[in-house]
Write the structure tokens for this entry.
Amino acid sequence: MIATSFVVAVVLEMLPWGSWPMPEFLALVLVFWNVFQPRRVGIALAWLLGIVMDVHSGALLGQHALVYSLLSYGAIAMHRRLLWYSIPAQALQLFPLFLLANIAVTLVNMFFPGVAPSWVFFLTPVLTAILWIPLTNMVLGRLNRARDSSAAIGR
């Protein structure tokens, strides 16, 4: 399920959305698995996925890798604390992490002339944090259902 979720997130990131503000799907999935499975999904995978996104988007090589590594580190550092909160409260706790990721991208982009943040800069972390709620409910519900059905089969 982890690999499938990353493939879906990469495909969603690669779709041509145009100028529509969209959440960072790959960052969201990466943070989700860093919070709930920190031993299986780590900083090295975040860096590798960042390089893939850099190559796809034609961005400065290492830009997304840096941001995804920082996101992964932040999520792993706070994963035990996050599990004490409800899912909407987790989204509020993760919003600053997504905002810091956008700030890091903007700081890297500011070194190049003609690149300035737009209004989407402020909306993307909000959408990503809001999307945390249904994604977490859906995936955790599916994982718990799979665990319950296999326990029923084993009886």
In short: Helices lie at 2-14, 25-36, 43-57, 63-82, 87-109, 120-154. The chain has six helices and no strands. The mean pLDDT is 87. Residues 2-154 form one domain.
